[in-house]
Amino acid sequence: LGLTIGERKRFLQALADHPVVDNALAPAPAAGPAVTRPERRPLTVMFVDLVDSTGIGERLHGEDLIEMTRRYREFCGAAVVKFGGHVERFMGDGILAYFCYPTANENDPERAVRAALTIVRGLGGVATPAHTPLKARIGLATGRVIVSDLAAGGAPDPHAILGSTPNLAARVQSLSPPNGIIISESTFARISGLFECEPVGEEKLKGFDQALRLWRVLREKPRRGFRLSERPRSLTGFHGRAYELNTLRMLWTEAERGEGKVVLVVGEAGIGKSRLIAQLTDVHLPFEARVIRLACSALDADTPFWPLIEHLRAIAGLTGTEEPSESLAKLESVLLGDEERRRQSRQILGALIGLPVDDPDRAKLQPGDLREQTIAVLVEELLLLAQRHPICLVVEDLHWLDPTTQEVLERLVQSLPSERVLMVLTARPTELSNWAALADTTLRLDRLKPDLIADMLGDLFAGYPVPPLLQREVIDRTDGVPLFVEEVGRLLLARAGRPVGESSRANDLADSEIPASLDELLMARLDQSGADKDIAQAAAVLGRSIRRDVLAAVCAVSAEALEQALAALVATGVLDPGAAPMHNVYRFHHALLQETAYASLLRDRRRELHARAAEVLRELDPDLVELHPEILAWHLTEGSKAEEAAPHWLEAARRSLSRSALTEATRQLQRGLAALTRVPTSPANLSLRLQMSALLGPALIGLRGPMAAETQELYAAALELCEATPEEDSHFPIRFGWWRLSPDFHTHIIRAESLLERAVQRADPGVLLQAHHCSWASNLNTGRFDRCCEHIESGLAIYHSADYRHHARLYGNHDAKACAHGILSQLRWMQGRFKSALSEEAQALAWANEIGHLGSRVHTLDLTLLHRVYRRDLPEVLERAGELLSFTREHGIADHGAAGLVFQGWVIALKENAAAGLKLLEEGFARQREIVTAEDFPVYLCLLAEALMAAGRADEAVERIEKERLEFERIGLAVWMPELLRVLGDTVLASDPHADIRARKLYAEAEAMAMAQDVPMLGLRVAMSEARLALRTGNSEGVGIRLRNTLKALPEQEGQDFKEAHRLVSALDKAFGSVSM
After folding, report:
1. Nearest to 1025 by CA among 1006, 1052, 1009, 1048
2. Is residue 509 scored above 70 in pLDDT?
3. Backbone phi, then psi, for 690, in 5-degree steps?
4. CATH class of domain segment(s) 5-220
5. Which of 281, 654, 679, 742 gives 643 a disulfide partner, CB atoms 3.0 to 4.6 angstroms apart?
6. Measured between alpha carbons, how far is 452 from 522 in angstroms, rounded to an integer?
7. Dist. CA 642–CA 671, nearest whole Å
8. Residue 434 to residues 268, 439, 704: CA-CA distances in angstroms?
């Protein structure tokens, strides 16, 4: 300001003696005190700077300068307070103010702009000594910050706001012209519908890596005041979904007749999916109908069967306080069927929900059988109920559905066409998975039109005429999302000076309280809770649904204080109370409210609450902790007790794998490994890492593929850990994965031999079995089929000597016996032993189904599909490829899903549409390159070449095979190579009919390789191609003799290859005579 040191001291003292603004003058909401502990929240920051303050200071005497500064501050501070802002501090000629603090308003960015406009328009009229006209530069920025009570400990703390938003506001202000307002892009996005703005362009600001788009506020759009009337606290009426509701009613009518239907209701959060379904179930279903609601949750997305477990507990009226026998009796009382069925179902479902059951027969079952049995009973229970009553099965928030419950529902879908069931599913538009294809009807909920929003507002304000300006503002700000409309209306009423539900006349709300974003809207809802927001935040840590006793213990408050807080949170619409018998359970009114409350917690407070939650759950709900260790593990992890959490993550993963819940197990193991990265190194922790890695590797291979970056990184780290630790049981499964991820097939052989040597030294039959497993696969891929068979024989002998079914979870995500028989089906076909091949295929499929292991079933289906491709059994290939695709999509298994596309595309290209088939084939081939090793690529390439020839693109087929052939030779891949060379000869001729010399050379090379590998069926196909060439060129050159001799050498003769071979023999006899034979 141009003052001397002495003048500056007197100046500051004079201002301190006469404070110029009182934030208490701001019109406070009905609830919501200042922030009482650090939290994360949205904030709009305003910086105001006086233009030419130095020049003014030089022109005025010291006392006049003090008076001018006081009036400047008074005017600017009053403008900030008028619009609900908070003056944080005065800095000489600068002012720092916050909007959305200490209590949020749903339209704080708008309020900040209005305050800024008030300042730049009115500052020039402020009376000052010597009539000095004042001007200001203003900058605004909106974003998320960390904020605490600025008044804590006395003087304001200038560092209480942390984040980039204050810095951005200061930088933006420096670019403003005199009496100008420059705003950030984030602020503009919230107010652009209310104010006319012009782009400033992109500016590179100090402290920010990227250039930022800025805007200048010019003026506000015309507005008029309005008044509100009281309204009862209730939902709005049902508006704008007549078509969707009528569709649901029509589908219900069909389901009632025994023609079950699936309908998927899709829409963004808050669009009214639940409201639409409530209208159907609460108003339009007949009395005899039964409604089953399964509510999915993000917190429980990794817990198998969770929505069904919650449903069973609810219908049985289980409170958790009963004796086990009483709980089982309650459960049995709601089950259907005869006495024996109810007893059996009670045992299965009782175990599912965590009740102790005495069932020796069930204890003998394998995990896959237990899982299958549970799914079957759940489906049967629903179908039995449908025989008594028509059912409306509602599954909400499908995007949080655990994979195992999804399988139950998909199994149920298969029976629906003849059942009295309407299945109604809700999902967000980006999370549809495969349900869109399974649904009979998909209803997409669009945003409401303006006239329907006006109807909703009429309901919200109890019939009081809503001013057109308010309607337009709500339309602009809510974008037709019903949730936003409903919440805005409630907050407007609350901000008008009374709690929702009371009867009073609202005050003039000319300064519209329409929120500009969901972020601010939800924070405003939470702030209405006042001091009870702490309880809401603690509840958010526990999840969407909260038990009263658990919450009381976590918060460490008295029963009376908790009751008051819960009542307040219910009154403000944050929580909903549960209905009997779940009266002690509360639920967040919206999942987004819970997410907002959770996100507002800072790290230390969040850790404290999670740690406390872990202690409380152990004490108050030990059964839940034992049955669902992933819940305790999550709280311990987030509570900075990672070392304690890790064993629980491992146990949770083992339970998930025992149910073949591969996706859940993967997430749990990844979280467990992440937790262990934050704890000190110790032998126990290193062992846990090894155990988790040994389980996670096969799961990742199954879900992502062996060549996926995620899989590669895991095994690289795990192998390094093996090298640094003493030998233990987890080492060999990890080294098995190390073999599986070999960069080429030369390395495959070397690593397999190394593992076999290690296994012999350990003298462990199970380890030796898996070493043979590696060796038979390595020898298969390198064309050493005799050695492959020897290792299979040795491995099966070990397998049959004990029970090794559990190995599937540790080694390659598939069972060794099923793998062996699947490979033998391929080898027996190549040897011409067709009956044996079919027998091996049947054994592989039967065993995989018997053990019930997901990865083994998929792997075996893939292996036997290759056998059917070898046989050129196109109808069977198409059917099984569809089955493989369905299975892999259902369970998210990328590896084999890509193979299914290749097989499906091949058949379609040859039989239906070459272009369509090629598209699928290329897509599958591309996916395979990204995620798997190349052992099947020669087969895929042959199929691709056939499809390209069918599409008239033989030149491209030649080019692709030539390029890939060199790569296969480099990496040592020899399986199916005789056939690839033969197909290359065929494509060369299709591309250039005169290239018979080159084709013969390729056929000769293929024949020699087939003889070396002792695969007479591939030799027969080579001889057949040579015969076709001889017939075309008129040059037999002993082709007939070779074809006849090859046929005679084969032990069995059946199938289309032999029909074609005998046809060619006859054609050669006719063309060249028997001499040529």
Report:
1. 1006
2. no
3. -65, -45
4. alpha beta
5. 679
6. 23
7. 10
8. 18, 9, 18
Q: Which two tokens stand for residue 958?
A: 């030649």
Contact 300, 656 (CB under 8 A): no
Q: Which fold has domain 242-444?
A: Rossmann fold (3.40.50)
Are residues 391 and 421 in contact, defined by beta-carbon separation less than 8 angstroms? yes
Inform me whether the pLDDT recorded for 256 exceeds 70.
Answer: yes
> Which two three-digit tokens encode residue 905?
């595309």
Whether the per-residue pLDDT at 534 is higher than 70: the answer is yes
The amino acid at residue 9 is K
**Contact by Cβ (8 Å): 910, 874:** yes
- Mean pLDDT value of segment 983-994: 95
Q: Write the DSSP string, 917-963.
A: HHHHHHHHHHHHHHHS-STTHHHHHHHHHHHHHHTT-HHHHHHHHHH
Residue 402 and residue 661 in contact, taking contact as beta carbons nearer than 8 Å: yes
Q: Are strands 261-266 and 545-547 parallel, antiparallel or unpaired?
A: unpaired
| Mean pLDDT score, 59-67 | 78
Distance in angstroms (rounded) separating the CA atoms of residues 926 and 946? 17
Query: CA 1076, CA 1072: separation in Å to the nearest integer?
Result: 6
Confidence bin at 477 (pLDDT 50/70/90): low
In this prediction, residue 968 carries a pLDDT of 95
**Residue-wise burial string across 785-798, b where 16 or more C-beta atoms lie within 10 A, e elsewhere:** bebbbebbebbbeb
The pair of structure tokens assigned to 889 is: 């999509």
Predicted local confidence at residue 466, as pLDDT: 64
ω into 581 cis (within 30 of 0): yes
pTM: predicted TM-score of the whole model, two decimal places: 0.68
- Encode 220-288 in three state secondary structure: ECCCCCCCCCCCCCCCCCCCCCHHHHHHHHHHHHHHHCCCCEEEEEECCCCCCHHHHHHHHHHHHCCCC
Q: Which of 515, 494, 514 is nearest to 506 (CA)?
A: 494
How many other C-beta atoms are found inside a 10 Å radius of the C-beta of residue 1038?
12
pLDDT at 463: 57
Instruction: Give 364's contacts (C-beta < 8 A, 6+ positions apart).
Output: none
Using one digit for the tens of pLDDT, what is the confidence trace for 688-726? Answer: 999 999 999 999 988 888 888 899 999 999 999 999 899
Amino acid identity of 36? Answer: T
Residue of 818 and 578 predicted with greater confidence: 818
The answer to whether residues 261 and 416 touch, using CB atoms and an 8 Å cutoff, is yes
What is the model's pLDDT at position 508?
33
For the chain, first and last CA: distance in Å?
Answer: 113
Q: Hey, CA dihedral for 912, 918, 920, 921, is it positive or negative?
A: positive
Asked if pLDDT for residue 281 goes beyond 70, the answer is yes
Is the per-residue pLDDT at 280 higher than 90?
yes
Q: Where are the domains of the chain?
A: 5-220, 242-444, 448-504, 819-871, 872-932
CA distances from 384 to 369, 373, 411, 1013 (A): 22, 16, 15, 57
Beta-carbon contacts of 435 under 8 Å, excluding residues fewer than 6 positions away, are: 262, 264, 398, 425, 427
**295 φ, ψ (degrees, to nearest 5):** -105, 120
Supply the angle between the helices 591-600 and 518-527 in degrees, to the nearest 10: 80
Distance (Å, whole) CA 519 – CA 892: 33
Query: How confident is the model over 145-163, as pLDDT tens digits?
Result: 988 655 444 444 544 788 8
CA atoms of 950 and 963, how far apart (whole Å): 20
In three state form, how does the secondary structure of 473-518 look?
Answer: HHHHHHCCCHHHHHHHHHHHHHHCCCCCCCCCCCCCCCCCCCCCCH
Cα gap 81→76, rounded to integer Å = 9
Residue 222: predicted pLDDT: 47
